[in-house]
Design goal:
Radius of gyration: 17 Å
Distance between the termini: 11 Å
Structural class: alpha+beta
Amino acid sequence: MFITLQDYSHTADEFRPYTFIEDPNTGNVVKVFDTENNFQFKTYSLDSEADMALFRTEVQPTLLEWSETIRPFQYRSALASRLSKSMLENVNKDLLKGSLSKEIHVTTYKGNIEGVSYTTNAEVERPEIDTLIANPKGLTTGQTTYPKGGGSALLDYELRQFKENGVEKVRLYSLDDDYYRGRGWQNEPKSESGFDPDLDPEFDSDYEFDVGHDFDYEHDFDFDFEPEGACGGQ
C-alpha cells in the first residue's frame, strides 16, 4: 500500500485516545474521547547503542507480552500478536546483519505502550513501514477497557515526520488492505511497485490471513461504528 504525502494534512488532534462505554438504554457501545491526555511518541534508532539498550528495557518486554496468543482466537488480535513476535525477530536479524538504517517508533498513553512500528528512517527518499502493531488486547471484539487509536496516532505521527523531511511517498506492507484503502492508501500496479507477495523473498507467507473474515467474529455489543483496524506488517 502507498500514500502520497503532498496533500496529507492530518493532525494529532484527529487521533486522540478513546475508549467505549455501554449505553444502558440501547446496549450499544459509545465512543468516548479523552480530551485531557494525548498519545506520546518515542523513536529508537538501530544505529544507536544507547537507543537499543533502552529498547530492550522499555519496549521489548511489551512486544514479548503481545506475542502471547490471546484466547479465544480473533483475527485482529491474533495478527497483532504474531506481528509482535515477527518484529522482535526482524530487529534482531537486522542488528546481526548490521542493517542499521531502521527505527522503532512507539506510542504510549498514560505510560503504557499502545502501538509500535518498525520503519526505515525518515532520511530516505521513499520510506517503508515494515510493521505497524496496535495493542492486541485493545483489538479484541467487544471489550471496552483498553484505549483505542494508538495505531492510527502512531501512523499519523510517522507520516508527518516523513512529510517534514520532504518525503513524497510512503510504502506500507499491509495485511489488511481494505482498512488502509478506506483511509487514503492506494495499491500501486506491480509493474510500477515491483512488489509481488508471491515472488518477494522477504514476504513471509506464514503471516498471511484471510483478511476478509474474522473467523469467530461475534459482537458482544451492537456497535454503531467501524472497528479500528489492527495493523500492517510484512
